[in-house]
Design goal:
This protein is an alpha/beta fold and 337 residues long. It has 2 domains: 135 residues, Response regulator (Rossmann fold, 3-Layer(aba) Sandwich); 135 residues, Response regulator (Rossmann fold, 3-Layer(aba) Sandwich). The chain contains 12 helices and 12 strands. The strands form 2 sheets. The chain has a 6-stranded parallel sheet with strand order 2-1-3-4-5-11, sandwiched between helices. The longest helix has 26 residues. The N terminus is likely disordered.
Length: 337
């Protein structure tokens, strides 16, 4: 009898507890962190200094940042040096005096902005460097692992050259740019394991498609049996591909390049045979990583320069096998919506 009463009491207590849950849930709870988060972002200015606007990388980063941050009241300033390094340095200098909350910087080389970026963080501005870093390590770097890109491109070229002449060429970007110097190191890492491969030309085209085309035309005249080219940027290697096509060697000279993965500049050019391999660092993901980092920094209360970290991009190799897929590439028009 006593056991029965205990059981009945337990059931009654359970029923009472269950009955109180809906009443408690109907009250709702104030989420304690979203209000200070919104207040930390509202009205803040993000200043953006690319090497230039009007190409897929820089346009894509900007569109992605705006999409993520404008709904929270973040304002944007763009300073476009249009490939002029001195103009870029002047833009960074003037922004330091204007005191935006954050500066997003695309460095033309490893030295020019380095001291300016350190000064910016000393004066209370968070600095995020995108894809091409400087010698100064700021609050965050978001970008490609260029050494990995160089290695994977060269591995593709070496494989394609098996049983052929083993003659390859390298089309570098700007010699002083981090993207070019580190990619070259990756190329060298792989070539050190393949002494049978001969580099017949390694020249800088300075990110210029016309220069890349002229260099490639000369190399192909001197080496009609060339089996592969490692190019350092697809925007430049449009010229490399054009020279290969004019020589009637499309499909015979394996062209590996890299870029942000925009459909017209990457997947479409792999599909039509201009590029055989395009290592994409996926601009929309990079933009989202930058935006997430900006949200965290502004809401963290961390002093600019007191935290330093890196977010290296997961690469997407674009080949004939996946160039038709919906996920390998992105559309700039969609990102701007």
């Amino acid at each position: 009898m006593r056991i029965h009463n205990l059981a009945f009491g337990s059931l009654a207590a359970l029923a009472l507890a269950t009955a109180t849950i809906p009443a408690f849930a109907q009250q709702g709870l104030e989420e304690p962190f979203q209000k200070p988060f919104r207040e930390a972002l509202a009205g803040k200015t993000v200043a953006y200094v690319p090497v230039a606007m009007n190409f897929d990388l820089t346009e894509g980063w900007y569109a992605g940042l705006k999409k993520e941050l404008e709904p929270y009241g973040v304002k944007f300033e763009i300073r476009d040096p249009n490939w002029n390094t001195n103009a870029g340095a002047q833009a960074v200098t003037s922004l330091i005096s204007e005191k935006p909350a954050v500066m997003v910087i695309h460095n033309p080389d490893v030295q020019t902005y380095a001291k300016l970026l350190q000064r910016a963080e000393n004066e209370g501005i968070y600095v995020i460097q995108i894809n091409m870093g400087s010698a100064y390590r700021s609050s965050a770097f978001v970008g490609a692992n260029w050494i990995e890109i160089g290695e994977r491109q060269t591995e593709g070229v070496v494989k394609a050259c098996q049983g052929k002449s083993n003659k390859i060429a390298i089309i570098q970007g700007a010699l002083s740019a981090a993207a070019s110097a580190y990619t070259l190191k990756g190329v060298e890492n792989v070539l050190a394991k393949h002494p049978e491969v001969k580099v017949v030309s390694s020249q800088a085209a300075d990110w210029d498609a016309a220069k890349a085309k002229a260099i490639t035309q000369t190399v192909l005249k001197q080496n009609p049996d060339l089996c592969g080219i490692v190019g350092f940027w697809d925007g430049m290697d449009i010229g490399t591909a054009a020279a290969i096509k004019e020589a009637g060697l499309t499909g015979k000279v394996f062209l590996a390049t890299s870029g942000g993965g925009e459909r017209k500049g990457a997947c479409e050019l792999v599909k039509n045979g201009s590029f055989d391999l395009n290592m994409s660092y996926d601009v929309p993901t990079q933009a989202a990583q930058m935006a997430g980092t900006i949200k965290w920094l502004l809401s963290s209360g961390a002093k600019p320069g007191s935290v330093k970290g890196s977010e290296y991009t997961t690469l997407i190799p674009i080949t004939k096998e996946n160039a038709d897929s919906q996920t390998a590439c992105w559309n700039l028009s969609d990102l701007k919506k």
